[in-house]
Amino acid sequence: MWSAPTAGLCVSDRVATTAVICLGNRFVPGDDVGCRVFDHLAGAPLPADVEVIDGGLCGLDLLFLVEGKRRVVFADAVAGMAQPGAIVVLSRTEVADYAARYGHGAGLPYLLRLLPQVCRAPLPEIALVGAEGEVDAGILRNLAERCMEIAIHGMP
C-alpha cells in the first residue's frame, strides 16, 4: 500500500524551516540506514526550526515536504561512492546528476532533478548525507550528527 510520509517529529508549534528527511526501508538490511537515523534523532533534542521526518520509500511524494523549506537534508544509504563505513555528503546537483530516465528505481536523484521544474523558487539548500556499506552504532551516530550539523549550519 502506498501512503504519504508521516511527520516523524517536530519539536515546535511553528512551521520548521529545515527538514531532515530520512529515507529507506526498515525491513531491508542495508536499506534501513535513513530509518535508523530517524530513530536516533527522534530521541534527541532538536532546534525549534528543525523537523525530522521518516520519508520511508515515498519517492516523488516527498516533493511537498521539500517545497517552502530553507534547507533539507536527506539521510540514506549510498552505494559505490566511497569505501565501506564512509559518510558521503553530496549537494542537490551532485545527486541529481545520477538521475537517468524515469523509472521505478529513479528515486532521490530523479526527485532532485525534477525539483526546479515543479517547485517555486527559491529552492532550498539540499544535501544528501549517506553511509556506504554496513553501518554500526558508531557510524550511525556520526551520520546523524553530520545530518544535524548540515541542517543547522548548511553545507561547508
Overview of this protein structure:
With 156 residues, the chain is an alpha/beta fold. It has one domain (6-153): Rossmann fold. 31% of the residues lie in helices and 25% in strands. The protein has five helices and six strands. A six-stranded mixed sheet has the order 1-3-2-4-6-5. The longest helix is centred in the C-terminal third of the chain and has 17 residues, at 137-153.
Question: Can you give keywords for this protein?
Answer:
single chain, 156 residues, alpha/beta, Rossmann fold, six-stranded mixed β-sheet, disordered N terminus
Layout of strands and helices, then pairs:
Elements: E1 6-10, E2 18-23, H1 33-42, E3 50-56, H2 63-66, E4 71-78, E5 87-91, H3 92-96, H4 107-118, E6 125-132, H5 137-153
Parallel strand pairs: 2-3, 2-4, 4-6
Antiparallel strand pairs: 1-3, 5-6
Helix pairs in contact: 1-5
Short characterization:
The protein has helices spanning about 35-40, 65, 90-95, 105-120, 135-155; strands spanning about 5-10, 20-25, 50-55, 70-80, 85-90, 125-130. The protein is α/β, with parallel strands linked by helices.
